[in-house]
Amino acid sequence: MSLLVSIHDVTPALADGIMRLWARCAARGLTPALLVVPEWHGEWPLEAHPAFVAWLRARAADGAEIVLHGERHDEAGLPRRLSDQLRAWGRTAREGEFLTLDGAAAGERIARGRGRLRALGLEPVGFVPPAWLAREDGHGAAGRAGLGFSEDEHAIRLFPSGRRVASPVVRWSARTPIRAWGSLAVARARWTLQRRAPLPRIALHPGDLGHPATAAALGPTLDRWLARHAPISYAALQG
Ligand SMILES: [Zn+2]
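That is the input. Now the predicted structure with zinc ion docked in place:
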């Protein structure tokens, strides 16, 4: 059984948390995928933070897979329709950049984001929409752009085949204390119910460190899953 470990929201805006999450993974011999946002909230262009980019290139040289995680991550300038509201209900505080985008608009942002990463010497292998929210056509845009995969909360879509691999996600939310405690319960339930899943994902977010309970849960949760599952890369899924 295999385990995909990733760090979401990789941006210089959250550099401190990202380094701490990386250290917790490294202490366990893990090399997580790094889900990079080229311009977090429209205010943190990677190009203006060369030291952070150098750190990313070094981690890629260590074997970390670089994954495009939106262009700016938030929904600024993108009005939700009622159907979008319903899909995002309770899921994200307007951090679903791809929630409302059709295939063409998603493709434009993916192409721009990938181009920016490449210009910095970072080669993304796949795409994860912020908050895992995208329309089916938006996921497909990643494949049409030549990226190897896209994913939602339930499955990973491998491209170019389009084959879906079921994969439950273990993640936390420390946005509010209630969410922090609730997400701890959900993460524990995932272990109880899905520890025999062949391919779970553990998604670490810098925000998880914002509440002591979730911060304390990350390491023991990684250890628990690693006792049963061997770490795997996205590239290995293509085989
Ligand atoms: Zn994110």
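The chain has one domain: 2-237.
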